């Protein structure tokens, strides 16, 4: 895609990765993604972030289309992850910038990534300002949103914020702005991105939004490093969405996720779902053999209850459930009721192991249901009763 002027003399010069389907190696990205970076053309020219290393040629081409023979004077590196700083070493060698502005933690990360000796790095903690001419750059550390080095760069004269990963979505498209795109797909992509990338840092999201509000910063354009740019009324909308996501207020919803060998645990999951539905709870059932853990996590993050199921296998649980629980625990979902179900043949450790995982995630755990080999009518009735119990507990939680 060609460069797009998003404000006077401020350009999107990123790369669209139409074929990206695995994001960071742990999350799916069925719509592809973009590596957004930006160029501010002023008395001094500033390049804000770079792109994935595979698109170094695209970056050079886009810069040349905007600048012609002019040089790039400054780099601003808001985050050192390779999808944003992958071209940094090539760019330093090629453009020879006068300054590279980076957060205090960013300097440490930059050294560890690139092992440079003579780069013109200047640390810019929160409150630092750099003038480009008619525009200036104000820097705000956003430590642990989502890496220690993360930084937001604000251009007050343009009321524009470069937010790096915050407010991102994995969408490859010819459109550059959110108001040009399908709103339902956009919101789903935002939820997926938040649930799988930003969720553990929800306290930092609230703290950052509060700090920006206290500073009285006017923003009429938010430019993330992935996906579409927000402008106009969409700015308030996306900020409110982030407050909603970060609050992790549970909805009248339960997610059942399981793996099964001979369908006994699957039948138990369906019986639990029937009980929940009879209590008026919206239920979604996911088999680990059918769905990716990042898709399931997108549904879990705003659910009030999570039911996990696995038969006993080699005195443990099935490997795909262990994968799901490991992934879920790392993302630290809050405000959940948890329950375990599972079938067994002889030793029967499954529900004990599943319950321990839920307890490690600080869930309000109810008694599990375990069935030997194939559940009969009475056994499935116990699962149905578990669904009813969870339905009552969800209503109690929502009333808190």
From TrEMBL:
Signal peptide: none annotated. GO terms for molecular function: electron transfer activity; FMN binding; metal ion binding; oxidoreductase activity. Residues 254-400 form the Flavodoxin-like domain. It comes from the Bacteria. It holds the Pfam family Flavodoxin_1. Gene3D superfamilies: 3.40.50.360, Ribonuclease Z/Hydroxyacylglutathione hydrolase-like. In the N-terminal section; belongs to the zinc metallo-hydrolase group 3 family. This is FprA family A-type flavoprotein. It comes from Pseudodesulfovibrio senegalensis.
């Amino acid at each position: 895609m060609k460069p797009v002027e998003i404000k006077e003399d401020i350009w999107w010069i990123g790369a669209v990765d139409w074929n990206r389907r695995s994001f960071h190696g742990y999350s799916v990205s069925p719509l592809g993604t973009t590596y957004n970076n930006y160029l501010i053309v002023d008395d001094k020219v500033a390049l804000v972030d770079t792109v994935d290393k595979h698109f170094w040629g695209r970056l050079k081409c886009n810069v040349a289309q905007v600048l012609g023979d002019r040089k790039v004077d400054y780099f601003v590196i808001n985050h050192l992850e390779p999808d944003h700083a992958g071209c940094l070493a090539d760019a330093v060698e090629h453009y020879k910038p006068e300054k590279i502005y980076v957060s205090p933690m960013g300097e440490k990360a930059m050294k560890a990534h690139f092992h440079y000796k003579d780069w013109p790095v200047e640390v810019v903690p929160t409150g630092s300002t750099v003038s480009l001419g008619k525009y200036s750059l104000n820097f705000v550390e956003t430590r642990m949103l989502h890496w220690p080095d993360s930084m937001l760069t604000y251009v007050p004269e343009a009321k524009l914020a470069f937010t790096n990963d915050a407010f991102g979505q994995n969408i490859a498209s010819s459109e550059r702005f959110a108001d040009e795109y399908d709103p339902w797909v956009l919101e789903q992509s935002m939820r997926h991105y938040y649930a799988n990338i930003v969720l553990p840092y929800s306290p930092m999201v609230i703290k950052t939004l509060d700090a920006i509000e206290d500073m009285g910063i006017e923003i009429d354009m938010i430019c993330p490093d992935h996906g579409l740019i927000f402008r106009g009324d969409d700015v308030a909308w996306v900020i409110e969405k982030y407050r909603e996501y970060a609050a992790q207020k549970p909805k009248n919803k339960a997610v059942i996720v399981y793996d099964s060998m001979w369908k006994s645990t699957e039948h138990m999951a369906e019986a639990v779902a029937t009980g929940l539905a009879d209590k008026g709870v919206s239920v979604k059932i996911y088999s680990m053999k059918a769905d990716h853990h990042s898709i399931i996590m997108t549904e879990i993050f705003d659910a009030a209850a999570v039911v996990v199921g696995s038969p006993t296998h080699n005195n443990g649980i099935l490997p795909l459930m262990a994968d799901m629980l490991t992934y879920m625990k790392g993302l630290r979902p809050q405000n959940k009721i948890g329950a375990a179900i599972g079938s067994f043949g002889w030793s029967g450790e499954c529900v004990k192991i599943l319950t321990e995982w839920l307890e490690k995630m600080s869930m309000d755990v109810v008694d599990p249901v375990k069935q030997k080999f194939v559940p009969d009518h009475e056994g499935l009735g116990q699962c149905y009763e578990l669904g009813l119990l969870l339905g009552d507990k969800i209503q109690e939680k929502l009333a808190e």
